[in-house]
Each structure stands twice: as structure tokens, then as C-alpha cells.
Specification:
single chain; four-stranded parallel β-sheet
Length: 522
Amino acid sequence: MAIYPGKEIERDAACVGCAVAPAEAAAAVWEGPAARIVAVDPESPADDAGFEPGCYLTSVDGEPLRDIIDWRWLSADDVITVGYIDLDGEAGEVELERDPGEDWGFAFDGVLFDRVKLCRNACIFCFMRQLPDDARASLSLRDDDFRLSFLSGTFVTLTNLKPADEARIIEQRISPLRVSLHASDPDLRRRMIGRHAQHGLDALDRLLAAGIEAHAQIVLMPGINDGDALRETLEWAWQRPGINGIGIVPLGFTKHQTDLHESFTTPEAARGVIEVIRPFQERARAERGTPWVFAADEFYVNAYGVDTPEHIPPASDYGDYEMFEDGIGIVRSYVDEFNEAVESGLAERTAEALKAAGLTARYVIGEAMQPFLDAMIAASPLAGRLIPLTVKNDYFGGNVNVTGLLCACDIVRAVQAAISSSLPSDSVGQGPCPFRGKGMALALRGGSEDCLSESGYPVAPPPGDSQLFLLPKVILNDDGVTLDDATVQDMETEAGVPLHVVSCNPLDFLPEIIALAAPPAL
């Protein structure tokens, strides 16, 4: 799911009925793409030429600007001619010159200057098709754009590539790409993603032959592409050295559909996947010095529960954590940082700061973290002072349990339950949702389960303590909004208590807790 196309959709929706500036009107009818300028560096070549925010660039040396990749490629020389639309809506060209190494001084609105390339597949596991009916439009945008794969790390199937796209990727060395592989068997891949499946594999082979590299992903479905099918796919990929690595993620499903009901949630199923990939990892370590194929953290958490830290691969396996955004390596990084915080005394200093302030920190997490995090904290100096507030994701439901997909509705319910143990269980989560538009039914309806940790570790603060509620910033987008369109202020109003946004990593959020616990300066 791309970021920039989503912003474009939201801008369009927000500006219905707005007055249109002359430059914007001219760009809308321009025959080619136009890159909107949002900032100009003072005393830069762009500034010297008279460009201002709101102007548009349309070309460089006669070539159209389709995206930021074109801009970087075409503007590499120190003398260029750019086509433009000025604030009055007038089009023209001007020559720009810069000193070697100097930046041109333009900042653009997003990275795509034309339309996003959309998905034409029919993936049986597509998460975008499992969203609530009232989810905002940008969440359900099904992009399949090789440019966003390169720029933003989204995965693409390559099924919509045209010959001109392939030629451009090769010429501009748009590499590495992140490619959705899923299966190598033609019939199985067609069954999983639709009738264009083979087009994508053929395109991938041509790009690999031309020297383009790829990181591949497999969405693993029980009884579909696991077991022998997974082995076959991994063997197929191993024969293509340009595939630098493969990440395997388990099927995710929500309650807003009726076809998908199981993933690799049992210890036996999760361990089975880990065992299938083990021989491939051993061969890759011996021949290429890397595990090459990686199971998502969720497999290890499901397989080992509270003992996950003892079984998750070492940090050396994850290298530069290139698959971090795919849920691969997050647990290892978190565990290592937490252990460092304990060994360095940071955890103890945090506990002392909270005790001195009469506070217990309640750090919001998804259920995916709960099995091992509660145990780690209970065995540390933070025991009883930092208590995870484990939140069940009822907005999406299904097996969605990661912190990054938590929504305000569920978080508020958990906070309310934490501050009022007398709240009747049958009233928790009832009523209209205040966040996803007027009158939207709360996704929690019917939910009476406790949102708090059920691990057996302490879930209540010491008597007399106040609770310091902490929100990891991963639940908010760049505009400070949750997936169900709530701001932090919205959540504070609904919950009735202050909520503090902190970092996601222990070495960052523990010092932030110390700062929050410190008495105000006189």
C-alpha cells in the first residue's frame, strides 16, 4: 500500500469545491505529467530562476517528468533546460545552471508526478479487499507500481509491466525491486494471483537477465503454497542469483471477509515452516554467506511464545535489517535493545524515575508482542513499573495482531478498561465509533474480552500510582492520524486521559519515559 498515491486521493477529496489556482488549472489540462513544486531553497538555481512553491515542472531537456526517478536521472548534468508552468498558469522553458555538486533547490509534492500504476491481479489473499466498507479510500488503493517498489519498498507482481516499463527499468537501473513471488509453479501462481501471473514471472526473468536485482516475498497460505510447493519455489528462486533474498510472511486475514480462516498460528504449523526453510538457509550461509530466506517474526512468536527470544535468529543473520518493514528482524532488534537497556542501567534508571514520580508506564502494544515482552519486562528492573497494555485488534479482527495496525477505537477501549476496573465488561467497546466518520458503528461491537495482558504477569499498577499511557508512533501516519482517522487529541478526548507518543525501540522510548516522568521545570 503506497503512501503518496494515498495522499493524492485524500487531497482530491478534501478540495472538492475549492478555488483552483491558475497553475493548478493549467497543470490539470497539461498533456503530460507535471511535478508540483512545494518548496524552493533560497539562493539555489531554482530560486535564481524565479521559481516559487505552486509552480510546476513539466520536462527536463524535452523529456517528460513522470516521477522523482526521472528527475534524478534527467537532471544529473550541471546545465539543463526545464519546462514549467508558472503561478499565472503560463507555460515556458528556462535554462538552469549549477556548480558541480550543488543541488537544484526544488522540493516536489510526492514522488509520482503522473498516476499510480494500479494492480490488475485477483490475489486470493489480498488484504486490501478485506478492509471495512467504511475505510478511507487511500487504504484500499491497490497499487502495483514498480517505481514505488524501488522508492518506498512496496512489493509488486510485475504483471502489469509493459515493454516500455521493462526498457526503462533496465536503462535507468531501477534496482533492486521488491517482487511478490508467492509461487513458481505457473498453475499455482495463477490460482493465487490471477490470469496475468505468468506475465510477471516472465518479466522478472528478463529483468534478472539484464542485471536488475530483486528482493522477493512469499505470502504463505496453509495448504496452498506451503510444504512441497514452498520448497519448489525456493529452489526456483535459488537458481536465480539476482534474487538477493526472500521474505516469507504468513497469510493475514480480517473479519471483514468469509473465505480465509486460518494461518500459521499454532506452534506446530509455525515450526513446520521454520523447518522447511532451514536447509535452504544452511546452504545459503555456506555458499553465499547469508541465510537468504527469512521467516517473518510471527512464525517464531507463534512457534515459541514466551521463549521466542531464545529461538529468534541472531542479529548477524539480519544484516542491515533490510526486511524490517516486512516484519522480519523486528523482534531480534527489540530484544537486543531491551537487553542493552538492562545491561547499561537505562532500564533501572527508568524504573527509578517512574517510582519517584509515582507513575506506572502503560505502553500500548499489539497481541503479537505480548507472549515474550511481558516475560522480559517481568524479569527486568522495570517489573511493575512498565506494564504493556496489550490491545486486541477488533477493528480488523481475524489474525491481525501487530502494533502498527492498531486503531484508535481499540486503543481507547483498552485505556478505559485500564483506568476503570469497575467498567462493566458488557459495556466495553459498545456504541458508535467517534473516529471513522459520523455514525460509523464501532468495529468492537459485541466485544467483551479484556484488552489487557492475559499472560499472568502483573497488569495493575502499584496502589496509589498514576498511569502514564504511551502510544508507539508506529500507529500514526505522517499526518499524525491512526488507521481509523483519529488524532492523539481525539483519543485523549474519548479516553479522558493524556496519551503520549513515544518511539518504538527501547533505547529510544526509555529515555523519553524518563523525560515524561521528570518534574516540571520551575
